Amino acid sequence: MPITEVEGRRLTLSHLDRVLWPATGTTKAELLHYYATVAAVLLPHTRGRLASFVRTPDGVDGQRFFQKRPPAGTPDWVRTTARVRSSGELMPQVEVNDLATLVWAGNLSCVEIHTPQWTAAVPERADRLVFDLDPGPGTTAVDCCRVALTLRERLAADGITAWAKTSGSKGLHLLAALRGATPDQARAYSRRIAAELERERPAAVVSRMAKADRAGRVFIDWSQNSASKTTAVPYTVRARPHPTVSAPLTWEEVEAAGDPDDLVLTIEDVPARVERDGDLLAGLLEPGAAAPLPR
């Protein structure tokens, strides 16, 4: 097995020719190459946050599992932080803070990376607000874009700036930076805004969890603001039939969306976008971007 050095850390890489995406023949080596290529824009969105992983050791068509605890054999140089679960148990989780950790996780076929809307240092404060726009039967990501534009205007009315990214699955994520809010407050606010949009556009939007209500409408999932929930991070690959990415979009792209296929971005597409545009979500990380929730 090849041994490589990443930022002074020696890593043994295994099964680099293993096909993780049979539909495209995409291998683990290609996954690792992608993550190394986009690390400079991905890591600022994971650094200091507890990571959960979707692992697909036999490829995306095989067994998969969602892993929060550090995998067996986690090196001692991988930073972990323990949090108190609702049960009272103290459970450690990995922080993906550097390139070496990112490559180590990718080598374990940790295809997806998810984090909560708070940092490990201040778990009682939500510094992110997220809306997950999920197209119901009969709708597409283009319909999510139309709802996203309305939602952006509604948030702006409260002094909150939103950024958009694809979910890497079927829909769209809207993100905003917060200050001075608890996860419960962020959850209550997002639920209120989602319900408000449903009242205004009942034929196009639903905010209730019942799947039977989603046909022909976009579901605004506000629940990912709960302290116990996580969201796919910017630039993470998704364990879908193709190696799609949860990729940032410009608002011009959201406004111009007419074909849902144009909103499907893969590990082959995203590096060129990053080289051209840098991190389209860089503004989300600026200290001045954080806004308080309205009283």
TrEMBL record:
Q: Which residues form the DNA ligase D polymerase domain?
A: 27-280
Which Pfam family, giving just one, matches this sequence?
Answer: LigD_Prim-Pol
Q: Superkingdom, according to UniProt?
A: Bacteria
Protein name in UniProt: Bifunctional non-homologous end joining protein LigD
